[in-house]
Amino acid sequence: MSLMIWQDDLDTGIEVIDEQHRRIVAMINQLHQAQTGASALAVSEVLDELVDYTLSHFAFEEELMEEAGYPFCAAHKRVHEVFTKRVSEYRMRYQAGEDVVDELKSMLSRWLFNHIRNDDKAYSEQVRRHLDRFTREHQQGGWLSRTLHRLFPGHSHAH
């Protein structure tokens, strides 16, 4: 697998979400690099970080959709849950000594790009309108930074 390249049609127009998606793509690429470096420790560290970050991203996305009153929030959440279960299975197989990294990488990249293009694009309009309205009322900064700090402790955020 070659490195994943970000494509413009993946932008949702919600800066904070796009930033998180780009980070996940960068981590999948890091996984690829750790693997070609053939250090099992590096691979497992990147894998753990990728899984943790993705879960935080999902939680953030779900809260954002709920905040905005997005009607298909529950369905989107189920898609996240199914994906999370699949990744956990890969992680267990990896820990059991199976060589699943190639399979995992292609699953991740296919899934992520599809999910962003379809499921995430579906909520982006409503969430963006909600955030714009919020921004005008000057409260959104508070909610957004509180939520980001809670879900992504230790990461600095560009606002």
Q: In words, what does this structure look like?
A:
This protein has 159 residues and is mostly helical. The chain has a single domain, classed as Hemerythrin-like (Four Helix Bundle (Hemerythrin (Met), subunit A), Up-down Bundle), CATH 1.20.120. 76% of the residues lie in helices and 0% in strands. The protein is built from five helices and no strands. The chain has helices spanning 15-36, 40-67, 73-95, 101-136, 140-151.
Q: What are the key terms here?
A:
single chain; 159 residues; mainly alpha; Four Helix Bundle (Hemerythrin (Met), subunit A)
Morphology: elongated
Range of helix content: over 70%
Radius of gyration: 16 Å
Rounded mean pLDDT is 85
Number of helices: 5
Number of distinct beta strands:
0
Judging by the overall fold, what is the CATH architecture? Answer: Up-down Bundle
For the record, what is the CATH homologous superfamily label?
Answer: Hemerythrin-like
Range of strand content: under 5%
The CATH topology assignment is Four Helix Bundle (Hemerythrin (Met), subunit A)
Domain module count: 1
Roughly how many Å apart are the termini?
33 Å
What is the succession of H and E elements?
HHHHH
The SS-based structural class is mainly alpha
Contiguous runs where pLDDT drops below 50 for at least 5 residues: none
CATH class: Mainly Alpha
Main sheet overview: none
